[in-house]
Design brief:
single chain, alpha+beta, Phosphorylase Kinase, domain 1, 3-stranded antiparallel β-sheet, 6 helices, 23% strand
Length: 202
């Protein structure tokens, strides 16, 4: 379990993630840190520093977002249903959601469509670095005005040392599993999958 706060370090706003440890720091606890240390991409959060204190593992991350994609969907839906609370309207303002003429909106979630390529770029970069993310879901996609970041690498795997690529089921969120993982969870550790994309990333 982990909780995330906003904090200020030497004038910089950072996300402060506190992870509870059971007894002592383990290899699994270090997994997210080791993966983040090797990554550098404009649409992936950056690791600034780490520490341990008693049974707490702390991570300082950049950048601080307005909200995650799941929260944005809820806020936008509430706005269009005229049930939005002030906190929801404030987040939408921070994201630059409102326009002078709302008739120009093509869809309730219009800011996201312009950033889908950013998400694809981040995933393609992870694959190029031999990192399998394994938990792609709205709550792990962070939003700022005109910017998107992929976060939470606690279930990611560095498979650069594996002899072959295998899709396992040892992490992630079930409701967001791909069809092949959700249908055949018992057999995937020994199965290989190859996916060819017929498109160019931006």
């Amino acid at each position: 379990m982990a909780v995330v706060y906003e904090t200020n370090v030497q004038g910089h706003s950072l996300a402060w993630k506190k992870v509870g440890l059971r007894k002592k720091l383990t290899k699994k606890d270090m997994q997210e840190i080791e993966i983040l240390k090797q990554l550098s991409h404009e649409h992936i959060i950056r690791l600034v520093g780490t520490y341990t204190h008693h049974r707490i593992l702390g991570l300082l991350l950049f950048s601080v977002a307005v909200c995650d994609l799941h929260t944005f969907f809820d806020d936008a839906e509430a706005y269009w249903n005229q049930t939005a609370e002030e906190s929801q309207l404030q987040r939408l303002r921070q994201l630059g959601y409102f326009k002078e003429d709302e008739t120009t909106y093509k869809h309730k979630a219009w800011p996201i469509y312009a950033q889908i390529g950013c998400l694809m770029s981040a995933i393609a970069y992870l694959h190029s670095q031999s990192v399998r993310y394994k938990d792609l879901k709205p709550s792990n996609v962070l939003l700022s005005r005109g910017q998107l970041y992929l976060s939470d690498f606690g279930t990611a795997t560095d498979f650069s040392l594996l002899s072959r690529s295998a899709t396992g089921h040892g992490g992630g969120t079930y409701v967001y599993f791909s069809p092949e993982v959700s249908r055949f969870p018992l057999f995937l550790d020994s199965a290989d999958f190859t996916i060819d994309l017929d498109c160019q990333l931006p």
